[in-house]
Amino acid sequence: MATAVVHYLAAAVSDRGRKRPSNEDAFGFSVEDGIYVVCDGMGGAAAGEIASSVAVDEVLLKLAGRSHNGTAQLPGAAEEAVDSANAAVYSRSQRNRRLSGMGTTLVALAVDDRRAWVLNIGDSRCYRMREGHLEQLTLDHSLVEEQVRMGRMSHSEAVRSPLKNVITRALGTQPEVTPDVFGFEAQPGDLYLLCTDGLTRELSDPLIESLLSRALPLKDICRSLVDAAKKAGGHDNITCLLVHAVA
Q1: In whole angstroms, what is the distance from residue 6 CA to residue 161 CA?
Q2: What is the pLDDT of residue 1?
Q3: Residues in the chain, pLDDT under 50
Q4: pLDDT per position as a tens digit, 78-94
Q5: Are 56 and 26 within 8 A, CB to CB?
Q6: In the chain, what is the straight-line distance between the N-terminal and C-terminal CA atoms, in Å?
Q7: Which of 25, 27, 31, 128 gets the most CB atoms within 10 Å of its CB?
Q8: Exposed/middle/buried for 67, CB within 10 Å: 0-12, 13-18, 19+?
Q9: Residue 162, preceding bond cis, omega within 30 degrees?
Q10: Percentage helix, strand, coil, to 5, in the chain?
Q11: Burial class (CB in 10 A: 0-12, 13-18, 19+), 160
Q12: Of all helices (H) and strands (E), which one includes residue 127?
C-alpha cells in the first residue's frame, strides 16, 4: 500500500518580552523548500540581532530552490547550510571589532515528505507533539543541562543555578561548529515547535503541551505560547515557530 504524502503548514511569532530593550531572536522558513529555522543571538550592542538574522538568512539562502534542482539532498544540504551560516557570522565578527564574539543558537527542522531532520546548536529547542504527547527532540548545549545528563545536577538545581544561561556550543563564535542532527519519520498530525529559551525558561513542558493541544490556527497557538511566557515573567525574547504535518 502506498504511503500518503505529508504536507506542511507553518506559522511563527517573535516578541522581545517584557524585560529586554530589543529582540535578538530571529526566525525564517520556506514551506516550499522544507526548511524552518529559529535563532537566539548573543553579543553586545546590536551584535546578537545581527548574528541571529545573518544565520537565518544564510540557511534559507543556501537551501532556496533545493526542492527543484534535484541535487542537494537532505540532511547533508542542511548541514552544509549551517556550516555556511557559521562561517558568515564568524567572518563578520572578525571584520568588525564591535561585533567581536557575537554568536547565536540555532534550531532547524528540514523535511522531505515524511523524512525529517532536526539540527541544533545551543539551547533553542525542537519539540514534537504526537498523539497528544509532547517530546523534546533536541538536547540543550548548556552547562547545566549537560550536568543534569551526567547526573551531577538535578533539574530543580539546574533551574536555580546562576550558570543556567551558559551555553557550551554556539554558531559563529568559532571557525567551525558541529550541530547535533536527529533524523526520524514524520507522521500526519505531528506538530513541531521550534523555540528559543525565552519560552522554555518561563513555561513548563506540561503547560506547553496543554497550549499546543488547543484547536486553534497555528498563528493563534504561537501567540498564546508567547503571551503565556510574557505573563510568567517575559524575562527574555520569545520566539515560537510551529510546523504542522498534514496528509
Answers
A1: 42
A2: 42
A3: 1-2, 70-71
A4: 999 999 999 999 999 99
A5: yes
A6: 15
A7: 25
A8: middle
A9: no
A10: 35, 30, 35
A11: exposed
A12: strand 125-130
C-alpha–C-alpha distance, residues 128 and 22, integer Å: 29
CA atoms within 13 A on the CB side of 126: 27
231: enclosing H helix or E strand: helix 218-231
Q: Which domains are seen in the chain, by residue range?
A: 7-246 (3.60.40.10)
Q: Which three cell numbers stand for residue 77?
A: 544540504
Q: Is the alpha carbon torsion for 54, 59, 62, 64 positive or negative?
A: negative
pLDDT of residue 184: 96
- Contact by Cβ (8 Å): 202, 20: no
User: What is the C-alpha to C-alpha distance for residues 225 and 124, in angstroms, rounded to an integer?
Assistant: 15
Say how many residues make up the chain.
247
Type of residue found at 62: K
Q: What is the pLDDT of residue 152?
A: 79
**How many Cβ atoms from other residues are within 10 Å of residue 70's Cβ?**
7
Q: Which residue, chain included where needed, has cell 522558513? A: 29
Amino acid at site 102? M
Q: What is the DSSP letter of 22?
A: S
Residue labelled with grid coordinates 524552518 = 36
pLDDT of residue 70: 47
Q: Which of 9, 78, 27, 6 is nearest to 241 (CA)?
A: 27
Phi and psi (nearest 5°) for 12? -150, 155
What's the pLDDT at 153? Answer: 83
Region for 31 from its dihedrals, namely left if φ exceeds 0, alpha if ψ lies in -120 to 50, beta otherwise? alpha
Q: How far is CA 226 from CA 126, 168, 172, 191, in A?
A: 16, 26, 27, 17
